[in-house]
Amino acid sequence: MFLKILNKLFNSEISKKDIEIKSLYGKNIILNKRKNYSKYKSINEAEEKIFSQNGEDGILDFILEKTKISEPRFVEIGVEDYIESNTRLIYEIRNAEGLIIDQKIDQKKLSKNLDLWKGRLKTLEANVNSENINDLLNKKGFDKNIDIFSIDIDGIDYWVLEKLPEKFSKICVAEYNPLFGHIHKITVPNKNNFNRTNYHYSNLCWGTSIKALIDLMEYKKFIFLGTNKFKNNAFFVSNEYYEIFKEIKPNDNNLNVYVDHKFMESRNKKKKLTFLDRNEQLHEIKKCEIIDLNNESKNKITIEKLFNI
User: Fold this and answer.
1) Chain centroid, CA 139 distance in Å
2) Domain chopping of the chain, boundaries
């Protein structure tokens, strides 16, 4: 019986009552973890999955507690139906105010699991790109005083972040592509309608490398705190919090530990999973063009040429 309840709670077809139960369950877990936050030497010790895809729920709660942000304002880009997301637990247990953005948001499904009438959450359907990001945030009143900014659009994330002002948020969660390795500063080209499947059938050529992301965020006055254990989301805080996190801040010269991913999501031309290992994945997309950010001209170059494969 208990397993049936958990299975219901952790799939996307759930009601408001189910969300309440799941939130209570998550809050109890988080409250217990908070007892040990002062002992943590890495954000990975805080990992916990409630609504997030991996351990982002716990990591974000840990960072919020350290920064003493009790009722955050957030922006999350790339949420689908907002069941599995980085900010949902925060919204449910912290009286948070937020803006969620995606190309398509199922308002009917959303209204079944969320009390939109409370007015603490705004939604926006938009294809986010580097040209419209600031206008979109301004339009909804979320261009200032942001505590958490989360982006996961499987594509031109780098170019979107590049257009944001310095210290656009106190905390940032940004997805990166571990397949791009830790040496090169690279990203996919800045295409407004970028689609990872259309760009390459394998779904493997998207996003930015961890090195490119860290360098960009340092330029924006953020410090790198590490990544989730799944190794696809990186966490940053505004450099005003340096003293708080100086014992947790990892060694930026050892970035290889953040790209040794184990997940195998490659697909063939018929969209079926092929479960290629890391080396096979890189060879699969060797003809794909990416941008080498170390090159001042920022011209396109093939993965094959850059990685010498």
Assistant:
1) 23
2) 2-261
Q: Is the pLDDT of residue 5 over 70?
A: no
Report the alpha-carbon distance of residue 35 to residue 53 in Å, rounded. 24
Identify the CATH number of the domain defined by range 2-261: 3.40.50
Helix (H) or strand (E) holding 89: helix 88-93
Compute the distance between CA of residue 199 and CA of residue 154 in angstroms, rounded to an integer: 11
Q: Rounded to an integer, what is the distance from CA 58 to the centroid of its chain? A: 14
For residue 7, pLDDT beyond 50? no
* Across 140-157, average pLDDT: 97
Q: How many CA atoms lie within 13 A of 282 on its CB side?
A: 16
pLDDT, tens digit (0-9, with 9 covering 90-100), for 218-239 = 999 999 999 999 999 999 999 9
d(CA 265, CA 275): 6
Alpha-carbon distance values, 234 to 12, 50, 213, 302 (Å): 25, 18, 9, 25
**CA 215 – CA 218 distance, rounded (Å):** 5
pLDDT in tens, 157-178: 999 999 999 999 999 999 999 9
In angstroms, the Cα distances linking 138 to 143, 166, 186, 238 are: 5, 16, 29, 21
In angstroms, rounded to a whole number, what is the distance separating the alpha carbons of residues 9 and 3?
Answer: 10
pLDDT tens-digit series, residues 67-82: 999 999 999 999 988 9
| pLDDT for position 232 | 97
Instruction: Output the furthest CA–CA distance in the chain (Å, rounded).
Output: 61
The vertex-301 CA angle with 273 and 204, nearest 5°, equals 15
Angle between helices 16-34 and 2-9 (to 10 degrees): 100
Distance CA 199, CA 28 (A): 43
